[in-house]
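Two proteins, back to back. First:
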Amino acid sequence: MAEKPSYQELLLKIAAMEQEKTAIRQRGKSLAENKDKRYRIIFENSPLGMIRFDPLGAIVDCNEKLIEIMGSTREKLIGFNAARESTPKMQVALKKALAGEASFYEDAFTSVTGGKSSFLRVVFNPVTPGQSPSEVIATLEDVTSRRLAEEVIARRLLSLTQPLSDASAIAFEDLFNISDIQLLQDQFAKATGVASIITRTDGTPITRPSNFTRLCSEIIRSSEKGWANCCKSDAALGRLSTTGPMIQPCLSGGLWDAGAGISIGGHHIANWLIGQVRDQTQTEEKIRQYAREIGVSEERAVQAFQEVPAMSREHFEDIARSLFTLANSLSITAYQNVQQARFITDLNKAREQLQDSEIRLRFALEGANDGLWDANLLTGAIYFSERGYEILGYTPGTMTESMTVDWRTLVHPDDFPGTWTHIVSHFKKRIPMVRIEVRLREQYGRWKWILARGKVVEWDANGRAKRLTGTLTDIDNRKKIEEAQMFLLEYDRSSSREDFFKALVMFLTELLRIDSACVCLLEADGLSAQTVAVFQDGRFLDNLTYFLQGTPCGTTVGETIYCCPERVRHLFPNDELLQEIVAESYVGTTLWNSQGKKIGLITVIGRQVLDSPDLAESILKLVANRTASEFERRVAEHERAILQTQLIQAQKMESVGRLAGGVAHDFNNMLGVILGHVELAEEQINPADPLLQDLHEIKNAAIRSADLTRQLLAFARKQTISPKVLDLNNTVESSLNMLRRLIGEDINLAWLPGNGLWPVKIDPTQIDQILANLTVNARDAIAGVGRITIETDNLVLDDDYCADHMGFLPGSYVLMMVSDDGCGMDKETREHAFEPFFTTKEIGKGTGLGLATIYGIVKQNSGFINVYSEPGKGTTFRILLPKYVGKARLEQDKPAEAMQQGQETILLVEDEPSILQLGKRMLEGMGYQVLAAATPGEALQMAEQHSGTIHLLLTDVIMPEMNGRDLAKRLLSLYPQMARMFMSGYTADVIAHHGVLDVGVQFIQKPFSKAELSAKVREALKRV
């Protein structure tokens, strides 16, 4: 036997069961809350009036539509007991529902709470069917307008189907559309210049008077006696005549009038009267006499009489005969209308036998959303059901019960051969029924995909098909989605170079039958978009930048789909483009890249209410992924092109750098010789000698040449630097006075230092170079008075920023920004700004190396630089230097020391004889003992033979046999305490890594002055 569970186990099971019961109750509560929420949404937003009754028949809730229909207020309706206080018929229907059985009510109703009368259709549904009592939910619809229309139609049908012997039951208004008759009467009066009106047989009007003169309408008929005489005259004129019109002077005013009777089957039903013209027989005296008779103003009557058109008797009789012809035509039309109505009545009676089966079929078709068609193959007439017409695009009021069509015009030309072959196969009984997907012409000439199914239901005696009946299914949306899929597939397979975006927007306008389609790329700021393809009204438009705020595109960003099928222009009144094209509908979708980032939009815009919003949404969702992929592909290609351009640019820069480095060594040697001998000559010449000025000019030219060489080396990143950890704010502040002297008094130099600036490691002289070059360029860009601003700040670049700015790397940086309000640069100038020797300045005013030097300095220090500029809007340079992450020990610049004498022994090694001799003379002039060697081998030999101490080795870096660093290593074995100092025109990374000196290495850049040499030698000797 199984062991019984322990007491502890039973407690655990009970606890688990309690937890499960609690979870079930919570789920039930959540479902109930959701259900109640959905119920409230449906209840409040229903287009029908909705009421909730308690089990006693009192109203406990209602929506706004019901309040509108009843013409009441919520306060009056809530609590009203319809089971006791409404109409008896409605009470019966409501009580039936309260007893648990659904009921229906349709009849005239006057609201007790609002006093509003109308025809209502109410459906009562018990909340708990079959139980009594039950709460009831009712839907209420105002059908007043429908009932009135039905009554008008019923009255007309009754008139049309009355026996002709009973003329009194037939009215003129029931036989004709009075608005059409009024138009005909107005046109006749205008064309002939006579007054016109249609009256009943007793003379009372049916239509409004046309072209009536003021004498008749305002003067004679204003008198009670005059009005009676006019009606008597009209009745006399309207006598029925088969020979011609009745023509006589008016019995009221004496003007000429004519009339013709209108009949149906010989029964007089109306009169068409014309007249109110005068001839020579009517005089003012007769009018005065008649005015006195009927009691109106004589003067007003005479004045109005003069305005009556004059016409000869013959002309008026011609017009009267035309009237007689028109009246006879109306009589014939009335008779035909009666006969046609009788035919329709008979036909309807014949069809009543099939009514039940047709109703059942119709319900089945409505459930399937299909339409019926029935084709008479002998006459070509086709009958469509209401749903059939709807599928073919016919709107209510434009449908006819059947129409005669040419099959070739109904079926799309490309589909007709296959369709007809299929139908013929069915006629020949090769296939049991017709089933084919085909494009049919809609009402306004557009084509729509339809699934047509049918079969022959009637054959003649010879076995030929007479009648083909079937159904229509709307498959247009499905076919268009398939068409979109095929478009994407064919474009991917095709080798065509056609632009995808242009092909897409053109395809969308044609497929969706819409006015405009657009694909756009979102800008990095997310506030605007740049269109890449716009197709509108059958043509491509130029691309533009589109600001998103207050537009449907702004609403679309981030949404899978945004659809506004109507009134979009009114919902976004500030969208100028929507207003310009008079837009009515809009659908848009967001494009996402493979990382889930929003990159673009696809939108379609129409001037009409959107026929099929669901189709537009489906199509845009379908093409969105492919479009986003195309954007990513193009971005990748663009980035590759940029990288290729950058590579070419880098190669070009590197080539120039190699050239600069190669030239610098020899050129600096020559400049060193020039500067050294000039200094020696200056020391020996009398200050009053005129030759001293020439020496000064030679020296200045040599110094400028040396500066030019340094710029080339800075650009090529081959100059030697000595980086220090420094506070960029302090370094910039120490340069401000010098910079203000450079730019002059007309330009304001603003300094905006950032707070808590991180340290950076850079040679401070390079900061001076950067600032000097940028401020001089800014000064040259400003015409007259202007402003230059220098700013610093801390900046962290994240992955997203670097993804949008090629060449930048994530990390922490110190920003130095120099901006001006000068003339700015265009795009082409910006693209070449950092190239060496590129300049926009006049000849002789610039070397084109300023920005190239800055570019080299920034890159040498692992930083980044970019420029923002537009013509007329100034220029901003942003320089990013990496934050120093080591232990920060900020170094301060030391003041320069005066030239000092010495007595130590120096071994000088230089392969250029002129530099060797010059250096020997300079050092000996300072008091040093100098051993001069032209090669490394000679230097080693001298060192071995020298009996004393060699305190310092001063050697060139690049020499035959071996370089300066290797020579120093060899000599250290002989003189371990010997100090070492290197000199060179460029480093070539022999004593430095990428131009940065190793710690403890002493170096002097060629060319140098005697004072610079003295200071560097003393510094090197002090370190021993």
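And the second protein:
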Amino acid sequence: MTTSTTATSTSAAAAEARALAEARRRAEEARIRAEQQRIAAAERARVLERARPTADTFEAAPAVAPVRATTPPAAGPVSAPEGTPEERAQIEARLQSEFGLTRPEAVNLARNDNTRAAARKLIDPNSTPAQRFSAAIQLGQSITQAVPAERVEAVLRKLGEKIPGADLLNRGNAQAANARQAVDGYIALFSPTSSFVGQARGAVQLANAAKNFAGTEVFSSFGDQARRLEGPARLAIAGLTLADPNATTQDRAVAALTLAGEAPGAWRDARAFTRALRDAGVPNPEGVVRDAQAFANSTLGDLPADVQGRLTPAQVSELARAGANGLESADFAAVLGKLDDPAAIDEVLRQANGAASPEEARRFLSVAGSLNPAVATDALSDAGRAENLARLARELPLDGNTDHLAGVLARVGSVDDLDNLIGALDGADPADANKLAKVLKNLDVGELSDVLGRPQALADLTSTVRNLDGAALDAFVKLSKNLDGAGFERLVQLSAAQGDEFAVLMRQIAPALEHVDGRTLGTVGRALSQGLELANGLVGRFGLEITQEVAGKLLRGVLKFVPVVGALPGLYDAGRLAFEAADLAGRSPDLAYLAGLGASLNAVDAVGGVLLDLTGVGVGVDLAAGAAFGIATLAIDLGLSAEVAKLELAEANGTEYEPPEWVRATNIIGAVATFPIGTAGFVAAHGIGGTIDELKWAAEQGGELAEKAKDFLADLAGNVGELIEQGIEEAAELASEAVGALKDLGAAGVEKLEDLARAGVEVAEEAQEALEDLVRSGGEAAEAAAEAVSRAVGEGLEWAQDQAAELLRDGVEAFENVAEAWAEDVSEGARAVIDRLHGFGEDGVEALQNLSELGGALGEHAVEQLANLAETGIEGAKDALEALRDVPGRVGEIAGDVWDSIWGDGVPLVPGI
């Protein structure tokens, strides 16, 4: 008994708890609904204010769905022009209020122009019944894509209320059954929970209802849009065709195949086909099946079901004509499988049926079928482009069993690239065009696009392949594989310039490339791309023309360090260059240093730094072993030999040789990259005065070279000990000269001077003095130097605090401007500067008064120091405090209190009494 009673009590308590929880849940839901309605009303008011609608415009929609309007907006035409933002906003609002869509769903649905047009027709009371039927079908298809599956049926039911006859559902008249058939068929057609048979039956029901309510106009109300409809909407078109008493046997056959085409091959089974049509409600299914099977067997053949579903009756007839000309449906499968535009399908059929022979037609279909799916439809829907492809298919021969044209077409990713390719192939002899296609098809997709977008690269490549055959062509193909677009362009530029000699070079390297695997080819391509980019920078920097001789030198210079092509040089004839440097020492210090730089380049990191700065191409140095080194040797070879020839000419004529700017710049950059050896060598070659002059010149050039010059000066100033170890005995004098040069640079030299002033090096004090001199000099340099000193003050550096106090005492404008920032964020360093001003006595009064007027914690500290000075009898401090009494805030209060306490009774305070 006790157990039973306890159980009953527990059960009652649980039930009470559940009831309480349910009540709380309902209350929370009510609160959320009320909040949603409040937000929706506010959003509706905002949208209405923004759009300023007229009486004929749609009511603005709530931003937070799904709140249904209690009173739908009055039906009427949309006032905004089609395609405008206003029109889209109005459609979105109407879709929410009329069909219960959330705002995101309405926005998503209204993005499509055809969908918005259909929405306009469906809710426009002036639309004909046929227009409203077709609009409902188009919208139904879009609803299944824009609305979550669990909400589709609810939205479809709201759309169904707009179908002609839906208003008769609750009336007891003869048309009520048709109305119910229309709405139920519509929902079954588009519902995601319907089976295919259910969708097909819904399509036929909707079609019959449409015929009853809208008449024969409904059969033509879709126009061209019918071709673009897919999924359930396509079933609706098929249902309308079967309900059309004027449809031809062929039309009805294709419609029947559409209704029964969900299962591939279902139309081949007469029983299954008949059952599917009967289940769908098609009248006389047996007769329709007979006609459809006969038509399909004779025309569609083995084309995939998805391809069959895209073909119009006229296209099926064209297929039948192609069959009579000796082609099979399988010949069309590859290309038709990529097309979703009737115009493109029409063009393919036209080209095939217009070919001179079945072989020519098959060649075109094979080429068209190779097109990248991303461009196939656009490529073949244009009659001129399709005609060009058909002509190229006729003219370009097969290479044994290999179709190079088809290979390159498969890699073309845009219509623009395709047009560029067609233009290049059209402009070449067919045999050369085939070789061109063979090279291009081996490029990566991105690189191919780059090349096709460069007309000169295509022209150079056409010129190159004209001289290549057999092993030479194969070597070129392998060498260019995995090149980037820019590298490929440079390679063909050099190869075209070298002419017949390039074919000789390719035949020479062919054996080394014959058995190379794909991974190694990738390494070759990357190394060659980067090498060509670096070499291109050298060519531009030296001002060389790509003559046949230069092209040969560049190609051989680059190729010699590419893996598997040739042995890599371990060292670059250092002995020869060292000898040449010695020979040039008394003739041209610039060329002597350049030769010495070439002799000392034995570290890839140093070489890479020189080249990156020299060429400006921005390539990393993650090249294959020795690649950057090989480029450096090429740079020295090209540049030094050219300049030595100029030097010899000047000596022969008795004139002075002037090194070009690139030599001077290269030497400076090279010296910085190879510090300290390179720096010491530069000084040894140019002397102290010459070094400073060269660096001043470099600093005036701006850009990266100027930055390197400042680095060079900083190295000279801050590394006296290392320079002495490298044999520069005058290092201390040189360091002092470097500080002076940085000071002469003005604002541009401040950063390096600041580094030196902080670094604790031998010239730190000179750098500090240089900064102070710049602050006092005025202008942009003064402002930059003042900022540097201010930063050091904030970090508590005593030399900076001493300088700051002196600069403020002397009223140096640049530092006074910088000190204004201290009022906002006074540091301990700034307080220390104020304390130093106090130590100046009478000389510091004016500066303290100026700082006091800035206010804040800085001003308070400054006025306190003035008070201290006043108490010691400094007369100027009294005047300053009296002037500061009128300053608003705490500064004025402190000044007033001090002044009153000392002089308020008219008797000045005598210190010490």
